[in-house]
Amino acid sequence: MTATRSLAPLSTKLGRATAGLNLCHENAAELFEKRPNLDFIQIHPEHLIQEEAGEYRDQLDALRHHYKVILHGFGLSIGSSAPLDHDYLRLVRDLLTEHPEAVFSDHFSWSSLSKHHFHDLIPLIQSEETARYMVERVDEAQSVIGSPILLENISSYMRYRDSTMSEVEFINQITRRSGCFVLLDVNNFWANAMNFGDDPWSVISQIDVASVKGYHLAGCTKETMGSGTVYIDYHGEAVRDPVWNLYQRCLDYFGAWPTLIEWENHVPPLERTLQEVEHAAMLLRPFADAMSMGGGQ
User: Fold this and answer.
1) Structural domains of the chain sorted by starting position, each given as residue range(s) with its CATH number in brackets
2) Separation between Cα atoms, residue 11 and residue 289, nearest integer Å
3) pLDDT of the chain along its 297 residues, tens only?
4) How far apart are CA 220 and CA 223, in angstroms?
5) In whole angstroms, what is the distance from residue 221 CA to residue 219 CA?
6) pTM of the model
7) How far apart are CA 270 and CA 159, in angstroms?
8) What's the CA gap between 110 and 75, in Å, rounded?
């Protein structure tokens, strides 16, 4: 780890025991109109590129200046063999300057090649060779942005024969050697465990404790495939009870970190999604009280 030594530290201007909601096309109008009390919203830098004008862009700009924000990308494709998009990374750098409370995250995945975007997060072969490559790519991205990034574990419906590491071993190698952090998507770990017959807590508890700096929570969809079932990370329903229970264990083990509710498909009225945010806030409240008494964030 060399390039990360001159980076600015990860922002701590957003309280750790905070809960927020993802901004998307489906909820923007109601969020813009009602402006409910939220600790933060999550915005996608890609939307600033794709939506140069129009109603959604006006709503996005108004809301990102009304609320504290975090930045979450889906198009960096950090695991691809294609060159990283430095124009995109400079946009992220400028947004981090404009929003000093924000951090930027993307995924342990790839999603594009030669300007073709697959609109999906494709898993990586988990090997020493891929880990070395990912460390180089993370160093490059962090050097342009000027601060550490967070990478999120993804849902996966296959495993490669050529993988020589578990998912968590792979993640730990990358964070230790690059200085990036983990955005822990609790639902993705749970769904993967259900799909592959693993114990979700046995997997999650192997993550380096100091590497976790945020949480994502979402609902996954149970579908029938052949003679069995599979859980799909569709972000189209409420967080499942086992995922809430797993999130509580994560809070106890890794500590409180900004927690985002993702609900982007089959989006219900805002009142319903805010109930999910309040559920997360309720679980975070004891940690907020303890931090307040201890003089922390």
Assistant:
1) 13-294 (3.20.20.150)
2) 21
3) 444 457 999 999 999 999 999 999 999 999 999 999 999 999 999 999 999 999 999 999 999 999 999 999 998 999 999 999 999 999 999 999 999 999 999 999 987 676 666 567 889 999 999 999 999 999 999 999 999 999 999 999 999 999 999 999 999 999 999 999 999 999 999 999 999 999 999 999 999 999 999 999 999 999 988 888 999 999 999 999 999 999 999 999 999 999 999 999 999 999 999 999 999 999 999 999 887 766 666
4) 10
5) 7
6) 0.95
7) 37
8) 8
- In this structure, what token pair is assigned to residue 65? 């200046």
